[in-house]
């Protein structure tokens, strides 16, 4: 299992479009992926889970990937979040 | 620990029924719920998976249409919904409810969505809270995909041969008929009163019905089985074995005691014959005329044929055959067919195709049929053809003025000459009657009687119109008082008018089937009662226990009363057990 911690820096946090990008990205990997915000942990392939995570700017997300392509998945997910989900601010 | 719970309502149709509980939730029954068996889990999961595919296809085609029309930006909204639809967590929660809590798919889905919507509502970010809309839409799309059939069809498909009981907010008459054919033995409704059309159906089919359950009662029960106790107006959810046993034993009990009276004559203690006829709604009931010893059919509600065939309009041939059966079932006594009493509320809306703000005061009964010759002519022609087969009597519903009788007779002439030129066998010499169910008709009963062969008191509507009370409105249902002095005075006037004009008079409203009202009706001068067949033994027993000679004086006293309550106490004091 590979894990990584990354802080949300885009202004809107893990909002609908960001969450949907995250799901699309997670779906490209076969490993199991969970993400936690504080005490709550959800599946990264679930839009529902991500939205209910209600992660605002400044939240620390902890990804845990488990499976064949776990290393690639972790790297890609960290890049997405730290790159502000491709949003300007 | 006992899981038994009781919901209280009003008894509308007596009797008890026990079975598996089906709840039709929502005003249009978009959700129907029941607990599944272990061996149904697999098929429910498959049904859910199938629905996801159907909903996904629907969503994709909507997205393509929207993207074509307004561009990808907005089409993306549907992309988010697509993610919801394929969401492993959402589907997982629904599957868990099916597997572990034995909910049927529709129930599991709505329960999951409701639960998740609550979580969305508690989020701090308004932006995230708004995403609940996507979830709601996806939930609806899935539900549509799951419930591609009407509730009665679903019930019929899922529960072959099982005893069932249904809880619903409301049921249309046709739903009630179809549900009964799918094995439903009793109903509990949130709305509905004594004489709603669904109640009439339930009574016709002898299925216990309770109305006036608390609002949202149907959404509450998380129960597998239920007993509908139509005698005390109770729904018992997940009854204890002891409770079930008690009801099972009671079901074997009395009722049957009345059967010997079927062969006895319907006469009062002082030897006055009182003629008891049967009200018939559905062809299935025709054998009951003989079983319960009715002296003829006093009311055949022909519009129920419409409800059964809905949305198709029954053909002339079909109607002719049915009227032949009616005549044969009543022989050697007469059979009275009431022409289509459509309109008003709920009955065959698809036929009327007009929107009315106040349908109960609108185009219904004879008003509607005289306007809609396309529908009515097939019935009049069927009546003329059937009259050649045997004696038939015809009565017109909702008559308010003499002209309507004339207009009907003209239509009969017209249909007669058509049939003649077609060389079809027919006769036009049936006896014609007018229903007295509107105060204006009651008050010109003496004038109407000049133009017809008999009158028929339809007390259900007469009470509704005279008391200005919607009999389905639970807030004012208490004003639905068949024994109100105003009603008794109208009845007395109609009795006098019929007697003076020497025309027949029958009462065919539900008050005639109330044993507590029998003495009063006889005292007012009524001699012919037409009632639901199953009440015949009970009313006959009541007739046979009464001494007619004293009853007129009691009725006279009641006509002077101030209220229905006073009428009841007068009857009670006279030892005639009212109320």
Question: Can you lay out the helices and strands and say which pair or pack?
Answer:
The complex is a heterodimer of chains A (89) and B (579).
Chain A: E1 2-7, H1 16-26, E2 32-37, E3 40-43, H2 47-53, E4 60-66, H3 70-82
Antiparallel strand pairs in A: 1-4, 2-3, 2-4
Chain B: E1 5-8, E2 10-13, E3 16-25, E4 31-33, H1 41-70, H2 72-85, H3 88-101, H4 105-121, H5 126-130, H6 132-146, H7 151-158, E5 164-168, H8 173-181, E6 184-189, H9 197-204, E7 209-211, E8 225-229, E9 234-237, H10 241-252, E10 275-280, H11 287-291, E11 297-301, H12 304-309, H13 316-330, E12 335-338, H14 349-352, H15 366-371, H16 373-387, E13 392-396, H17 402-422, E14 431-436, H18 439-443, H19 445-448, E15 454-457, H20 459-467, H21 485-501, E16 504-507, H22 518-523, E17 528-531, H23 536-544, H24 551-559, H25 564-573
Parallel strand pairs in B: 3-5, 5-6, 6-7, 10-11, 10-17, 11-12, 12-13, 13-14, 14-15, 15-16
Antiparallel strand pairs in B: 1-9, 2-7, 3-4, 3-8, 8-9
Helix pairs in contact in B: 1-2, 1-6, 2-6, 3-4, 4-6, 7-8, 8-9, 13-16, 16-17, 24-25
What would you say about this model in short?
Chain A has 89 residues and is an alpha+beta fold. Chain A has 3 helices and 4 strands.
């Amino acid at each position: 299992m590979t894990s990584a911690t990354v802080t949300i820096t885009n202004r809107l946090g893990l909002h609908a479009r960001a969450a949907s990008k995250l799901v699309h990205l997670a779906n490209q990997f076969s490993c199991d992926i969970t993400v936690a915000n504080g005490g709550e942990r959800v599946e990264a392939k679930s839009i529902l889970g991500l939205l209910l995570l209600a992660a605002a700017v400044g939240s620390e997300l902890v990804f845990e990937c488990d499976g064949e392509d776990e290393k690639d998945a972790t790297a890609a997910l960290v890049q997405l979040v730290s790159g502000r989900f491709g949003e300007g601010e | 620990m006992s899981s038994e719970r009781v919901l209280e309502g009003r008894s509308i149709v007596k009797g008890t029924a026990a079975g598996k509980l089906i709840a039709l939730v929502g005003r249009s029954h978009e959700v129907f719920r029941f607990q599944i068996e272990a061996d149904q889990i697999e098929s429910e999961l498959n049904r859910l998976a199938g629905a996801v595919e159907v909903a996904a296809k629907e969503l994709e085609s909507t997205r393509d249409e929207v993207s074509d029309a307004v561009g990808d930006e907005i089409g993306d909204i549907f992309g988010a919904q697509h993610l919801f639809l394929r969401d492993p967590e959402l589907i997982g929660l629904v599957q868990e409810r099916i597997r572990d809590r034995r909910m049927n798919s529709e129930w599991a889905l709505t329960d999951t969505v409701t639960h998740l919507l609550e979580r969305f509502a508690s989020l701090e970010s308004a932006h995230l809270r708004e995403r609940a809309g996507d979830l709601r839409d996806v939930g609806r799309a899935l539900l549509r995909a799951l419930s591609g059939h009407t509730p009665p069809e679903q019930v019929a498909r899922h529960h072959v041969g099982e005893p069932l009981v249904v809880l619903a907010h409301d049921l249309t008459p046709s739903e009630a008929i179809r549900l009964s054919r799918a094995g439903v033995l009793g109903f509990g409704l949130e709305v509905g009163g004594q004489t709603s059309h669904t109640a009439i159906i339930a009574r016709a089919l002898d299925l216990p019905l309770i109305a006036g359950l608390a609002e949202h009662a149907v959404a509450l029960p998380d129960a597998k089985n239920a007993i509908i106790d139509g005698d005390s107006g109770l729904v018992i959810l997940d009854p204890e074995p002891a409770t079930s046993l008690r009801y099972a034993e009671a079901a074997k009990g009395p009722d049957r005691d009345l059967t010997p009276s079927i062969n006895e004559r319907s006469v009062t203690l002082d030897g006055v014959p009182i003629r008891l006829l049967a009200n018939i709604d559905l062809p299935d009931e025709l054998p009951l005329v003989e079983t319960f010893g009715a002296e003829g059919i006093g009311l055949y509600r022909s519009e129920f044929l419409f409800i059964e065939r809905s949305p198709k309009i029954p053909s002339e041939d079909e109607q002719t055959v049915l009227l032949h059966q009616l005549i044969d079932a009543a022989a050697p006594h007469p059979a009275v067919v009431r022409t289509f009493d459509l309109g008003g509320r709920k009955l065959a809306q698809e036929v009327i195709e007009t929107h009315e703000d106040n349908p109960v005061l609108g185009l219904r009964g004879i008003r509607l049929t005289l306007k809609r010759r396309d529908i009515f002519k097939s019935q009049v022609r069927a009546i003329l053809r059937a009259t050649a087969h045997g004696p038939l009597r015809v009565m017109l519903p909702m008559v308010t003025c003499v002209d309507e009788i004339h207009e009907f007779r003209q239509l009969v002439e017209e249909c007669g000459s058509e049939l003649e030129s077609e060389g079809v066998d027919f006769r036009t010499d049936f006896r014609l009657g007018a229903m007295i169910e509107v105060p204006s008709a009651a008050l010109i009963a003496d004038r109407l009687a000049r133009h017809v062969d008999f009158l028929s008191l339809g007390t259900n509507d007469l009470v509704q119109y005279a008391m200005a009370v919607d009999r389905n409105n639970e807030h004012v249902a208490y004003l639905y008082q068949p024994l109100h002095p105003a009603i008794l005075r109208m009845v007395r006037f109609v009795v006098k008018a019929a007697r003076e004009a020497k025309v027949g008079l029958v009462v065919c409203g539900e008050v005639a089937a109330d044993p507590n009202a029998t003495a009063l009706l006889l005292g007012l001068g009524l001699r012919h009662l037409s009632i639901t067949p199953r009440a015949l033994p009970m009313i006959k027993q009541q007739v046979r226990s009464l001494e007619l000679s004293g009853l007129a004086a009691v009725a006279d006293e009641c006509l002077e009363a101030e209220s229905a309550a006073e009428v009841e106490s007068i009857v009670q004091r006279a030892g005639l057990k009212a109320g």
